[in-house]
């Protein structure tokens, strides 16, 4: 039974996650659209003569080359399934019903590959027509285990396309050029895992039937396009390859962070340590954006489960409504928040008493602080993106190349107190005019795309600086033009050139006055510095930040960074940690008889040396199990109990062997070898 507060938290969590999940899916579709559009364009060019039934000699020569789209998707292999799933759905809706997906584990040889190919192609045909008679016929064919071949498939394809039935292509929504002879698209998901011999034989066989079957290959590549030449040294000449590159996983992650975390649309946020855990798993384990999203989902669940005040982690209008309906216990929980206690300590004595005793006064203060937290986030993200625009192109990237690095640094502490901040400002004071104007254009675009209106005057100042730099550029062009006309009358030999350069050098060393551009550039850098010091405070300085920020980095690390060896040792040494029953043997060095059999056998094996005598081990196990029992050793019941205990011991030893703690040995009879040391 859930209380009203728990149900509200659950509903809020579910709504928030659905919104963030939808945003992530829309981003995925948007990023895939460019790749899919290029693939459709490639398909439109391929088999053009096949559809026209061309007899051109050049076509006859090229008809042995299979149109091949090489999709370089990156090393984040766990994300490829989602991409191929969307690609398959798009192709079936717009191009052809005959889309086949093959994996290396399903195709150990050419026979299995052709069987899988034919069954999927014919299965697609059955799905499109969806008649009971043909479904039964397909089942009968599969039961007979027919010998599939490219000749069989080409005959079947010719019979199907000659019917002229619109039911085969009723779901194709693109132009009619695909209606008569829709291509057969074969997707090889993990080309690096395929056997070289299987792939080469299949490609050579397929190239012989291109005049009968409009085959198109789509190769999923995780590493580099050069793998095609390494895998297919003799068959690459039968491929007409088009290289298509997807967005890198790091750029995808940057866009995802911008959509989900660097925005005020979603109130939920991660503190520096929790975000760093997810980023480290992404960078050092799998580069998987989908796994990053799952980690974010886990953080949301843990936050709403462990933080009772997470009911206020919602949109600003809803926050105001929920604040007025807070119970007395919830108000007391707010008073115990560290950030709220710091806020109360800074108030006058009268307001301190009112905050701690008057619920109405407390709710009014909370409403103001919730609004302040929302405004803080709006200003924080705008200034953060502007600072990143200035520092992301500096030499050696003192504040980080990616915005996630700068964001983590700002979450941890005051960024202007870091050692890298002052050197970054010095480099900014050396920017050229073109670079500075390009950065200012980016900052103006950031202000234009942000929903907040708090920094409107700053946006106007940036536009003024741009106008001033533009006027300086025009005046410099006029001066350079007039100067070039005057200097055109002078001699330009080497002597006069060296003399003029020396004069200019002496003039610069004697006159240290800044130019107009340098003065304006320093003003821009000073303005950015003031914005950083005013708005980029860490979030833990804000009142009520605990409501929206998840701080359980240890929980994320514990769930996402698997440590099976430690988990096994904990489970076998202290089963109460997971079972939550039998706490009588918690933290006890002795071996209780109520523990599970495998735990008893495990603790006994820890007391042994490298070789364990199974007979002694069995007797010790029986002694522990029967420690609290008083039975007559000569009775029939006692013999039955011994047999049961012996069977339990054999099962426990088998389980330990399966887990890798022991192994059989031939060094001594009735002995096993121990494989682990150090208590784990």
Could you explain the architecture of this structure?
The protein is α/β, with parallel strands linked by helices and 680 residues long. It folds into 3 domains: 46-247, Rossmann fold, CATH 3.40.50.300; 253-475 and 515-545, no CATH class; 564-674, no CATH class. The chain has helices at 4-45, 48-52, 57-62, 80-94, 110-129, 132-144, 150-163, 196-207, 226-231, 249-260, 272-286, 289-306, 316-324, 328-335, 338-345, 349-357, 359-391, 403-412, 421-428, 433-449, 456-487, 494-510, 516-535, 545-548, 553-560, 564-573, 576-579, 597-606, 614-625, 636-659, and strands at residues 66-72, 99-102, 184-188, 215-221, 239-245, 269-270, 549-550, 611-613, 662-664, 671-674. The strands form 3 sheets. The protein has a 5-stranded parallel beta sheet, sandwiched between helices. Helix 1 packs antiparallel against helix 12 (289-306), helix 13 (316-324) runs antiparallel to helix 17 and helix 29 (614-625) packs across helix 30. The longest helix has 42 residues, at 4-45. The protein is globular. Mean pLDDT is 84; it is low at 126-132, 138-144 and 481-492. Residues 4-312 form the Origin recognition complex subunit 3 N-terminal domain. This is Origin recognition complex subunit 3. InterPro entries: ORC3, ORC3_ins, ORC3_N, ORC_WH_C.
């Amino acid at each position: 039974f859930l209380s009203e507060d728990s149900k509200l938290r659950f509903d809020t969590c579910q709504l928030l996650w659905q919104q963030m999940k939808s945003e992530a899916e829309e981003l995925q579709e948007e990023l895939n659209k460019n790749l899919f559009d290029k693939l459709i364009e490639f398909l439109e060019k391929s088999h053009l003569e096949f559809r026209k039934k061309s007899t051109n000699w050049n076509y006859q020569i090229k008809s042995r080359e299979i149109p091949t789209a090489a999709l370089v998707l990156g090393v984040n292999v766990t994300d490829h399934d989602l991409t191929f799933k969307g690609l398959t759905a798009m192709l079936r809706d717009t191009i052809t019903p005959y889309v086949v997906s093959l994996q290396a584990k399903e195709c150990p040889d050419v026979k299995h590959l052709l069987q899988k190919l034919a069954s999927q192609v014919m299965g697609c045909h059955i799905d499109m027509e969806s008649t009971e008679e043909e479904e039964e016929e397909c089942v009968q064919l599969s039961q007979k285990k027919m010998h599939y071949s490219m000749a069989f498939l080409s005959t079947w394809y010719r019979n199907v396309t000659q019917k002229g039935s619109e039911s085969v292509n009723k779901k194709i929504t693109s132009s009619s050029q695909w209606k008569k002879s829709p291509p057969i698209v074969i997707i090889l998901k993990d080309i690096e895992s395929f056997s070289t011999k299987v792939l080469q034989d299949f490609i050579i066989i397929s190239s012989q039937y291109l005049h009968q079957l409009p085959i198109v290959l789509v190769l999923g590549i995780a590493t580099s396009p050069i793998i095609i030449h390494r895998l297919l040294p003799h068959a690459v000449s039968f491929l007409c390859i088009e290289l298509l590159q997807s967005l890198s996983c790091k750029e995808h992650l940057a866009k995802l962070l911008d959509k989900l975390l660097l925005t005020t649309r979603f109130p939920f946020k991660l503190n520096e340590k929790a975000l760093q855990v997810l980023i480290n798993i992404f960078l050092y384990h799998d580069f998987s954006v989908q796994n990053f999203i799952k980690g974010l989902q886990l953080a949301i669940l843990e936050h709403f489960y462990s933080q009772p005040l997470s009911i206020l982690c919602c949109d600003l209008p809803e926050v105001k409504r929920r604040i007025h309906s807070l119970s007395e216990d919830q108000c007391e929980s707010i008073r115990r928040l560290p950030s709220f206690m710091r806020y109360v300590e800074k108030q006058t004595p009268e307001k301190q008493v009112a905050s701690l005793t008057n619920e109405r006064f407390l709710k009014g203060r909370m409403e103001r602080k919730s609004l302040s937290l929302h405004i803080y986030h709006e200003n924080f993200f705008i200034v953060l993106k502007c600072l990143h625009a200035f520092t992301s192109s500096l030499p050696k990237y003192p504040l980080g190349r990616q915005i996630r690095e700068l964001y983590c640094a700002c979450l941890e502490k005051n960024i202007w107190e870091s050692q890298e901040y002052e050197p970054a400002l010095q480099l900014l004071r050396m920017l050229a005019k073109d670079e500075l104007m390009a950065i200012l254009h980016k900052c103006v675009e950031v202000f234009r795309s942000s929903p907040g209106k708090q920094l409107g005057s700053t946006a106007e100042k940036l536009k003024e600086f741009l106008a001033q730099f533009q006027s300086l550029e025009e005046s410099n062009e006029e001066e350079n033009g007039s100067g070039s006309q005057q200097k055109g009358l002078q001699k330009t030999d080497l002597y006069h050139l060296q003399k003029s350069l020396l004069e200019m050098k002496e003039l610069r060393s004697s006159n240290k006055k800044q130019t107009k551009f340098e003065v304006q550039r320093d003003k821009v850098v000073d303005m950015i510095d003031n914005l950083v010091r005013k708005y980029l405070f860490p979030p833990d300085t804000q009142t009520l930040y605990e409501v929206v920020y998840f701080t359980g980095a240890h929980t994320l690390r514990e769930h996402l960074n698997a440590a099976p060896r430690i988990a096994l040792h904990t489970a076998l040494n202290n089963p109460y940690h997971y079972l939550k029953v039998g706490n009588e043997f918690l933290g006890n060095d002795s071996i209780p008889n109520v523990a599970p059999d495998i735990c008893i056998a495990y603790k006994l094996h820890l007391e042994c040396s490298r070789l364990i005598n199974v007979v002694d081990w069995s007797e010790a196990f029986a002694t522990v199990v029967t420690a609290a029992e008083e039975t007559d050793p000569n009775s029939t019941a006692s013999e039955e109990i011994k047999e049961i205990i012996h069977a339990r011991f054999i099962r426990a030893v088998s389980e330990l062997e399966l887990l890798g703690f022991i192994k059989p040995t031939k060094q001594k009879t009735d002995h096993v070898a121990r494989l682990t040391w150090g208590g784990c």
